[in-house]
Design a protein that fits this description.
NADP binding (chains A, B, C, D), 15 helices, elongated, Rossmann fold, alpha/beta, 47% helix, NAD(P)-bd_dom_sf (chains A, B, C, D), homotetramer, N-(1-d-carboxylethyl)-l-norvaline Dehydrogenase, domain 2
């Protein structure tokens, strides 16, 4: 099977390697010559341009886009007139599913099929395989089955669930047809929303452990500082790296994220190389907004999201308002330096 | 009527002045000579020591403590042996109500009565009067009625509620017997918990208005930065001082806190004199902990509390954990400088 | 001055009365004959149709719409072709400000001006006046000044802020030009977002007080029920109506919402006539979504919003998932009846 | 090695079996004869009473308590006088670590050592092994090493973390000495706090997916119901069981909790056998309270906790207050039936 592949960044290149290894012939393009050369070194056919890429594919074609969200529409505009009835375009990036609805409609006017795929796996995907959440016309999904199967981890990546037997389903292999267009990115969006929540749960818990020695520190005894009533209860210096490692076996909270955390904390439990400025890249926001549209409460997911906004400094004015109020009603002056010195 | 009064800080001195003006004879003490002199200049009798203060009071005595939480027990230890059966000690500071339970029991062994009073009013109290939430033995409350009435704002401070007529109740004058010991500080604790929530609601809303020009700013278009899909919707530069002023009349969200905020923002809507480091002084924490004991959800009150903790820098380690995780699964590097420069 | 006014519901009729009393001649229309008649009984001129209403107004016209959000566009479609260059349409309902941007652009093609006004005041507005947040072309705002001034509470509705003197500004009278189109509804949206937060802060605090007798109740001592470690600390039966009344005078948390709450709790502190199903009507959602777009953390405002979603039953499936998980890892069975039995 | 074991409930019995299989001779007691008989059928020695149990153990003894929190002190009172200097008591239940501090001090007066062990593993522990978080005197920990090792999953239960090599540490086998008394239950407490957060993150995300068909439902168009602006975006009927299964392979959010969830949803994605009443058993509360004492923000963990309180019906009065306010300022009546009707 043949596949066009545009976008050879961190993710894209690894995916092409996995596809080639599984016998899918990739015709690839990227604006960076270097990236094309590396793909070629792994057996892919490097095209010189989008036109060239389309020309090198036999019909009916399928072209997978693995691009920054902002660039997808630009490439689609170039690609669309070059394709023919029955061809498929796949967006495997992190698009908002609302964009999928619009794009699918636009492409259907040219009798092209559009498939949206949410891909999870990060930098580990080449080795572990990619979990794929797929939306679009079902015939397109079926035609692309070998591609999805090649990228997916396969059933062996986890023990089968109780009650599952016989020929493994696609879901059990790590890819799933989730519904009409947008369904793939919708499920991926929620996946990332959950990811934010899981990450924050570990981070908050570890922070409670980190500060379990609060009773050892001297506190100022003024009206501006809340007293610690029982300092004798907060005298622990916990070995955080070992604790994360410990929880990996036999506990209820074992997970892949914990595996990674244990490795990081094993190297340096103080995490001194990090400043704590946490980016967010869209999906967490979209999940919250979808939940609000639906009227579904997501207090944990938004708390995780807002923690990131705050790490970016965006709570600043709100805090100034609080300080101004406190000054105004109580004559409270801000303490200029805090515990963290 | 006579009242002993220990503690002439910001609050205490103002309270003594209000009491003296209402004809309550105050015998006062404070370790600072200066404060005693100022109280005396307003007509109070300054004692040289706790012993002297007790000696100058006719029995049955009543001594009001207006002290930092950490000092209350120290003074109580001095005071207790000097008092006689039937005397009353009032704690008007910000004690945790759990301390009241312990103290009341200890004093009752000496046949002394203990009264806990939560006092709200801040630096404005001398002029506006003090709202008083009172717990303890009911006979003590009754004996002290003139004191509470003198400190309270009086019924004229607000229009009477629909359905209230005839002789105004104590609650309508601004003081209330809330129940047995601890009841006064319990109600004050929750009062402050609510205050945190109210303040945060205004602060968050004003922050949304402040950032309504987000669409005017250039955003980096990389995988680490969430795109603003509709910059044209965020092009407003709002006059925050005027908006706070506006809301004071006719709107649903008018309040005394808003009055103060409008004055602050009227002076300087950028609040450049504040850094945004917001202290907390115990009651917000105790409210949250009481709610948790009761099994009562208080998501708004804890969100407000946690905002303060974060302003103090205590979320730092949690954020480093998040950065470490993101680096580990996605190869994401922290953006070292953020929007706030 | 003359004003067309379409929509004579609860709000609209009261506004027309206030306008007529201030000498603004209102030409009104509503599909309900009854409502038109009532407006006429207060001096307004009742039109038989939108056409009739437009015909009865001298140019340049101004027509105020006070309609359910879903109907605004329908009426606009009827109204637009009947108007002439320089006429003004005002939307005083609860539209999303994003709709304003679209509508203003559409009307500008017909050389009509569009003004969006967020109106606060509820059923009390006729008596207290209406707080108005205004967006649109500045010349339109200026032309309509007498209308806004007539509806506004006036400077006397609150003491002037410290630092404000001389001729009162519009903001001090209760109306404000907030910026270009959408600005009025944006500020109103955030106003309501804040309102949700304020309401929830009071509600949560009162709930903590309500449950301060938790220690009096018998608890089952099984592994499914969290033990109350100190029942002796939760023995209070608080007089909630009196407490709300108390806080109205001299406390930091006094507000108009508290005034209303005190009246309600004064009538019946158990609130037995309410079931606790709390609607939301859009602005709280939009505020949260705008904050998320801006990257501004609003944990208090969303907690308040999610509380409403939950009161509507929308958390149900999430809770079933939790029960399923607990059953799965711990063999925990759901307790079928809870404390509230 | 010999071990006394008191408490043969769900957890206790499984632990005894695992211990016996590993060659630890257990002398067991439980008030239920049945449970003693079952333990005996697996090779344990059943004692007739606490006295008998102590008598059957050679010194220095070690007795493991696996009891409901409320019963621990009762049994300790019986046990303490029967033991001799140097004996060890282990509390493996879910005690609050603050109780450990008190108990350890009390036992040390009798020259007994107290060890607190937080045990995770649930009903799966016999098969998977138990993750153990251990606090107390280090010599006691060392003496009990074979017991902990027998209960632990062993290093093979998970791939070794990058950077770990050589002889596996105890943490890598699934048990860890965390520090002085209380440390074990402190870490277990936080472990469970994290568990609440993780569970809620999955549950909320799945609820967003479940309601992704919101656009298919008819909504009332009244002022009490928030309009869904884009129903076309919420037309998905997602296969929730398959999605949970899908995420188990290759995704970032894989975990043991997800494994269990996938099995549950695989059986019945509607979860119709559950009502959604979610108990909490203490640790989530204690984690939140410890975080508040430390001044550490835990918005995700408390959101998860409050979700449980709400599922138990404890938000009711707060919601009634909201309804009363809305009625009071806006004349809003409650909608008596909601969507979930």
């Amino acid at each position: 099977m043949q596949l066009g592949f545009v976008g050879l960044g961190r993710m894209g290149l690894n995916m092409v390697r996995r596809l080639q290894e599984a016998g899918i012939e990739c015709v690839v393009f990227d604006t960076h010559l270097e990236a094309r050369r590396e793909a070629a070194s792994h057996g892919a056919t490097a095209a010189d341009s989008i036109q060239d890429l389309v020309a090198r594919l036999d019909g009916p074609r399928a072209v997978w886009l693995m691009l920054p969200t902002a660039v997808v529409d630009v490439v689609l505009d170039q690609l669309t007139p070059l394709l023919s009835e029955g061809d498929i375009v796949i967006d495997g990036g992190n698009s908002h599913y609302v964009e999928d609805l619009r794009r699918a409609q636009a492409l259907s006017k040219h009798k092209l099929m559009y498939v949206d795929v949410g891909v999870s796996g990060g930098v580990w995907g080449r080795e572990r395989g990619y979990c794929q959440m797929i939306g679009g016309p079902e015939p397109a999904f079926k035609r692309l089955d070998p591609v999805f199967a090649a990228l997916a981890p396969g059933v062996g990546a986890a023990p089968r669930s109780e009650g599952r037997s016989g020929e493994p389903s696609a879901a059990e292999k790590g890819y799933l047809y989730c519904g009409p267009n947008g369904a793939g990115h919708f499920v991926k969006m929620v996946h990332n929303g959950i990811e934010y929540g899981l990450m924050a749960a570990y981070a908050e818990g570890l922070n409670v452990l980190k500060n379990a020695n609060a009773g050892k520190q001297q506190r100022t005894a003024d009206a501006e500082t809340s007293p610690l009533e029982h300092p004798e209860r907060y005298q622990y210096d916990f070995p955080l790296g070992d604790i994360a490692e410990l929880w990996r076996r036999g506990s209820v909270i074992g997970s892949w994220l914990l595996d990674l955390t244990a490795a990081e904390l094993g190297r340096d439990p103080t995490l001194k190389d990090y400043t704590g400025r946490v980016s967010d890249s869209g999906e967490g926001r979209w999940t919250a907004q979808a939940a609000i549209d639906e009227g579904v409460p997501v207090p944990v997911l938004t708390a995780a999201l807002f923690g990131r906004f705050t790490s970016q400094g965006n709570e600043l004015y709100a805090n100034k308002v609080l300080s101004a109020m406190r000054h105004s009603f109580g004559g409270h002056n801000e303490i200029k330096t805090d515990n963290k010195g």
